[in-house]
Known about the structure:
The structure is a homodimer.
Chain A: H1 6-12, H2 16-21, E1 25-32, H3 37-50, E2 52-58, H4 67-73, E3 82-85, H5 89-97, E4 101-105, E5 111-113, E6 124-128, H6 137-140, E7 145-148, H7 160-180
Amino acid sequence: MKKLTYNELITIRKTIEEFKISEKHDIILILDNIRSSYNVGSLFRTCDSANVKKIILSGYTPHPPKDEIHKTALGAVETVDWEYVEDIKSVLVKLKNAGYKIAAVEITDNYVSYDNLKLEHFPLVLIMGNEISGIEDDIIELCDFSIEIPMYGVKHSLNVSIAAGIVIYESVQKYRQYFINNK
Amino acid sequence: MKKLTYNELITIRKTIEEFKISEKHDIILILDNIRSSYNVGSLFRTCDSANVKKIILSGYTPHPPKDEIHKTALGAVETVDWEYVEDIKSVLVKLKNAGYKIAAVEITDNYVSYDNLKLEHFPLVLIMGNEISGIEDDIIELCDFSIEIPMYGVKHSLNVSIAAGIVIYESVQKYRQYFINNK
């Protein structure tokens, strides 16, 4: 067994031009009132790898251009579609009317385990909230359901960029299973 | 739908005492030559949530006590079993002899997709290597296989703590499917 070299890797990855016109997974990530620029940058990098449709930054979530975001995004700010909106609520209503299911990644009394997403949960909007306080109650009210990652330990939550990474990848794999591999 | 409150959450989580004697998922995480203390701390927090058996830190990976680790571990240094060893190679041989399958989370020519782990891949050791250069070649030689997260974008890798989070949670869910839920 041997590691692939950089030269072998670049032959199997998309160029920026190929990526821009490639078919996206129909999943939108919303980052509402996230505090840390490093988390935002790191999530740009995850969304490039997962090839999700778009990132929407809202509230006081920091947005590009910002050095700390670029530091952890490693170029993904240029590849992933994104926009900033001040208040996410009217956007959520529009997305809902366009057929999206709105999921809060949060612990609520109406949750689906992250590894139990079904065909009817797509196309999917994933909302991540503040690192400490989570998603605001008036946003929770606009959500169709919440997605929970089971916690088997003492702590109540994961780092926000890790929780998002786990849910995004699982959503993408399910999306591919339902809409791409079964075509 | 409403968020669970802190008082509701603490009734459904384990206490430190309950956690210490709870049955662990038989998965060991090795962090070899990781540079960032923040990544190490964040992975302690993930390993608490995932209830994995142990973290082994090796090479120049920073280890507790260290302020930056405690900052992102949020207490998980006290709940997750861990040890530091200078050279991981003899430990890998011992784990192999004890029946563990050794997996490099790395892009190689002999990989299993992270969501395709089978019964025969357990009990499992997951190795994460340096943020830039990945796992050293002499460690790769001791591995049974590698685990790959599919990259659908332009970039070649994820942040190390996000990649680890995705692979750890998928491993835990498969472990539970094979060894706990089917008991």
